[in-house]
Amino acid sequence: MTLSIETPALLFSATSLILLAYTNRFLTIAQIIRSLKKNYDENHNKSILFQIKNLNLRLSLIRYMQLFGVLCLFLSVFAMLLLFLNQVTIGIYLFGLSLLSLLVSLGISFWEISISVTALRMHLSDLADDKDKK
């Protein structure tokens, strides 16, 4: 099997955009947590506490998504360096590991999105329950 030095470079733009999306997601959730924390300090509502715990789990998942995304980039750059130095076999294996890191990052992203969707559905069901009571 052969691998040109350009192949690992293809991951740069995709991985960079994914990391940007992860960072935006992280910042948005952090802002929501700050707002909910302030609301919880005033009201001590258990529903708010549940939302904060859910968002805290999502923040942890996003941290791991970022970790594996950065590892993907690092391994891609290292694979390119090894290919440049004619260490083709090791470069191929490192590129494979970078792809595996990207897959792990995307898998964790899928998990985080499913938690988000479940939380939104619970929130919407609360609205439906309130509507039925009226």
Count of helical regions = 3
Helix content: over 70%
Class computed from helices, strands and strand pairing: mainly alpha
* Distance separating the two termini: 68 Å
**Cα-atom Rg, whole angstroms?**
21 Å
Number of strands: 0
Secondary-structure element pattern, one letter each: HHH
Give the overall average pLDDT: 90
The share of residues in extended strands comes to under 5%
Shape: elongated
The poorly predicted ranges are none
Biggest sheet character: none
Oligomer: single chain
Question: Can you put this structure into words, describing what you see?
Answer:
By secondary structure, this protein is an all-alpha fold. Helices cover 92% and strands 0% of the residues. The longest helix is centred in the last third of the chain and has 46 residues. It starts with 5 loop residues before the first helix and ends with a helix.
Protein traits:
134 residues, mainly alpha, 3 helices, elongated
Layout of strands and helices, then pairs:
Elements: H1 6-43, H2 46-84, H3 88-133
Helix pairs in contact: 1-2, 2-3
In short:
The chain has 134 residues and is mainly alpha-helical.
